[in-house]
Amino acid sequence: MVTLGFIRNYTMKPSCRFLMTRKSLGIFGFAKCHHSLTSNLARNHVHKKQFSAYPLRIFGFGSAINDTQKIFCIPKTNFGQPRFISVFPYGDCTRRRASRGFSVVSSFASEVKGYSTSVETRVNDKNFERIYVQNGIGVKPLVVEKIDKDENVVGEEASRIGIAVPDEGENVNAENVEGVKGVEIAGPKRVESDIEKEAWKLLNDAIVSYCGSPVGTVAANDPGDKQPLNYDQVFIRDFVPSALAFLLRGEGEIVRNFLLHTLQLQSWEKTVDCYSPGQGLMPASFKVRTVPLDGNKFEEVLDPDFGESAIGRVAPVDSGLWWIILLRAYGKITGDCTLQERVDVQMGIKLILNLCLTDGFDMFPSLLVTDGSCMIDRRMGIHGHPLEIQALFYSALRCSREMLTVNDGSKNLVRAVNNRLSALSFHIREYYWVDIKKINEIYRYKTEEYSLDATNKFNIYPEQIPSWLMDWIPEEGGYLIGNLQPAHMDLRFFTLGNLWSVISSLGTPKQNKAILNLIEAKWDDIVGRMPLKICYPAIEDEDWRIITGSDPKNTPWSYHNGGSWPTLLWQFTLACIKMGRLELAQKAVALAEKRLAVDRWPEYYDTRTGKFIGKQSRLYQTWTIAGFLTSKVLLENPRMASMLLWEEDYELLEICVCGLSKTGRKKCSRGAAKSQILV
To answer: Which GO terms describe its molecular function (predicted)?
Structure first.
């Protein structure tokens, strides 16, 4: 059992204790929080508009080894002795990783030919699990005690762990960004508009507390909604823009708590009809429930949803990918890299990667998923290899490559990550990209080619090219298609996948530039009166009946079927900043700012131009609010975006992992396409 006790010094605020038991490989398995009813749920303390973080005092017992020893900086000779440890971060994460082998591509380049682009076959036996056992799974219990400080030392303690506690009117602590490449200290903060003040108040009102600490934000907080369904839960994907808004404002505790609590939930047993998915699966959402006990006491319990209660019972593939992306962002912005170096966090990353990199029947490096496994969580014809999942997968792999501790136990996993990154980037750039030249090439495709040197590798029939695309594609610009499978190309434009391809450098610099050129050229279609379309165009008539199953929520130009989602603003802003197109982001944010507050912050908008509030749209949608605020903060200080972006990795692209010789019966296709994938 692992016991953690949190002791705080607020008047009338009860002590809080987590009681956790392990059910599987996860460090934590079950969580409860006991209180007395004389308290006021301690929730009122959350709405102070400021969060602070404090050092942890840890009493260590037993024979924790290697990585645990390094993370807590304990002398080897004394390790395993019961002792009191004060934990503080090392500082800048990138600098530390540079000294311990952050870039491992070169060291593995000579060995990669003997490995597939997924974790070796041994990943499914106990040898792979031994990676985790050797990195701290077998550690005896830790008792973690968290003690609040007086208010006059909060700022001092918070600064020691890299999280700013801003004063009134202050933006981001200069200490957090000083010395970070590409980041400048912002000047005096401009006066916030009334809309921004309202948005910050709404975002703070959406905060969910667990045992007196903030752990996330609800999906929507509409006081007039009598049937919230699951909109009163904390969703991993929905919380990401909220987390970034808090981090950019200097409030880090809520993000740290969220990352650790969702990590605990990863190890919970997940069963649907007597079948359990992989151990690395992250929940789609969780809810803090209050359970009455005997007498006048109660307990708070985290209740996760791994898809067992979701519409369609679909596992949230993107949750783990978003979690890894947010973990990197937390370290980059706060400078607190001790979180990502913790034994349990390292194991959580490995479990997610294990789930994604396991060998299967697929011939492609892209992830194969079912319909509804990401932001588009209803039937919309995206089963197979949807771009959104591939872009998030690529981003998560690049994040993991930065954060994984390289040692004998993780060496094979790091090699598999590098191999998959190389293969995935080539696959997406070569086969998902379309512009007017490529469409004309597809239009002239020959079919039924049985050859190693076939041009039409996926046997795409030219008749699949829809008539709307012939007229719609601009002379300058292009995009990555929504999906690719044998004899099938989904030629719809999916905004999130294309934006993340720009942000993560999954696309080439030339392709990234062309994506924004296309958005600019087709502004009325993709942005219209409210940014941004989740996909374009909508599927209609017979296609709608067949593909969606006549879904009454996904009618044409509504919800996931061509609806406009303001939360995509922050991702659009990041992409524009990266490509030097700040004016496009400013134009989109200004457009949204005119309507969002007046319309009470809807979840989505309907019609071809986004003219009307969505027919089933929740109001006061949290990620709409957070997406707007994050965009405003980034536009105010664009250089902060450098900590959330990835640049082109030419070293990675040069690695070929297929093992095919130039003179053999089969030849590697990368050589012929290298001129394209490197531009």
So the answer is: beta-fructofuranosidase activity; endo-alpha-N-acetylgalactosaminidase activity
Separation of alpha carbons 529 and 604, rounded Å = 12
Closest CA to 16 of 52, 48, 45: 45
> What is the pLDDT at residue 677?
52
Backbone angles phi, psi at 658, to 5 degrees: -80, -25
Which of 252, 270, 259, 212 has its CA nearest to residue 236? 259
Helix (H) or strand (E) run with residue 433 in it: strand 433-435
pLDDT tens sequence across 570-618: 999 999 999 999 999 999 999 999 999 999 999 999 999 999 999 999 9
- Give the whole-angstrom CA distance, residue 278 versus residue 267: 10
Residues of the chain with CATH 1.50.10: 328-671
CATH domain 328-671 topology: Glycosyltransferase (1.50.10)
Distance CA 258, CA 214 (A): 8
Between CA 360 and CA 358 the distance in angstroms is 6
Give the separation between CA 264 and CA 28, rounded to whole angstroms: 5
> Which whole number is the average pLDDT over 514-519?
98
pLDDT one-digit tens code per residue, 109-151: 434 334 444 444 333 443 333 333 333 333 333 333 343 434 4
Triad 663, 668, 672: Cα angle to 5°: 105
CA atoms of 320 and 617, how far apart (whole Å): 26
Burial track 408-426 (b if 16+ CB lie within 10 A, e otherwise): ebbbbbbbbbbbbbbbbbb
User: 48 pLDDT exceeds 50?
Assistant: no
pLDDT at 184 over 90: no
Q: How far are the Cα atoms of 145, 147, 654 from residue 12, in angstroms, in the given order?
A: 19, 16, 61
> In sequence order, what E strands does 119-219 have?
143-147, 207-210, 213-217
What single-letter DSSP state applies at residue 617? Answer: P
* Separation CA 677–CA 679 (nearest Å): 6
- Tell me if the pTM is above 0.85: no
CA atoms of 587 and 642, how far apart (whole Å): 21
Sign of CA dihedral 195, 196, 197, 200: positive
Closest CA to 50 of 207, 241, 261, 221: 207
Give the CB-side neighbour count of residue 538, counting CA atoms within 13 A. Answer: 23
Burial state string for 521-558 with b = 16 or more CB within 10 A and e = fewer than 16: bbeebbbbbbbbbbbbbbbeeeebeebbeebeebbbbb
Examine the pLDDT at 33 and tell me if it is beyond 50. Answer: yes
pLDDT in tens, 68-121: 333 333 333 333 333 332 333 334 575 455 444 434 444 444 343 344 444 443
d(CA 312, CA 426): 33
pLDDT tens for each residue of 523-562? 999 999 999 999 999 999 999 999 999 999 999 999 999 9
Residue-averaged pLDDT of the chain: 78
Model confidence pLDDT, tens digit, residues 483-502: 999 999 999 999 999 999 99
The residue ranges of DSSP E strands in 526-673, in sequence order, are 535-536, 605-606, 612-613
Cβ 608 vs Cβ 528: under 8 Å: yes
